Amino acid sequence: MTESNAVDVAITSRRSVRGFRPDPVPTATIRDLLALAGRAPSGSNIQPWKVHVVTGAALARLTDALSAAHESDMPEAREYEYYPVTWREPYLGRRRALGWQLYGLAGIAKGDTAGARRQMGRNFTFFGAPVGLVFTIDRDLEQGSWLDYGMFLQTLMLAARGRGLDTCPQAAIASYPGVVRGQLGIPESEMVVCGMALGFADPEEPANRLRAEREPVESYAVFHEG
């Protein structure tokens, strides 16, 4: 396989995995992945990313605390808006289509609010992954650094695919920043950006059969020629 083909395979095989095997990921492998992700571009090379790698007992404590917050109906306290405040098309339709695909695979019927809540709650266990990653950014940085952060996260996910690992980027982890901050000792000067599950996909997990559709190039690209 050529280098370009290997990159193509990593890109096209990357997906959000929502069920992991418990097999541990060696710390050396995680370090290698983060070093590769650190090659992502950033404006003036400021490299705004900060990463908390959570495994073992620390991961159990974090997932217990997040799950308790979710189950007790603790109000979410997200420090930034990830999704649109007001939904409109085509974004609302795309979101609904993905949601119904996922719920169908998970056996959640329309109107089953308890089932939907349980599925949402699986975010806070990192879907059973042996590694939970929590990403933070200095609060005083601007939107350009958040763009840089997205490139870092994507590079990390593609590097993971190159090692036969899977991921799930999780905005939900930022829903309870106080809980995360307290568990991991994150200072108030940093915002929780998101989390990410890392590990080996469980082939028996029904939700892992989900394949999100993508829009054709013609729907979002305009070619200016001549």
TrEMBL record:
Keyword RNA-binding recorded: no
InterPro entries in the record: Nitroreductase (IPR029479), Nitroreductase-like (IPR000415)
Cofactor: FMN
Keywords attached to this entry: Flavoprotein, FMN, Oxidoreductase
Keyword Oxidoreductase: yes
Domain Nitroreductase: 11-199
Domain of life: Bacteria
SUPFAM superfamilies associated with the record: FMN-dependent nitroreductase-like
Family affiliation: Belongs to the nitroreductase family.
Protein name in the entry: Nitroreductase
Native species: Methylobacterium indicum
Lineage summary: Bacteria, Pseudomonadati, Pseudomonadota, Alphaproteobacteria, Hyphomicrobiales
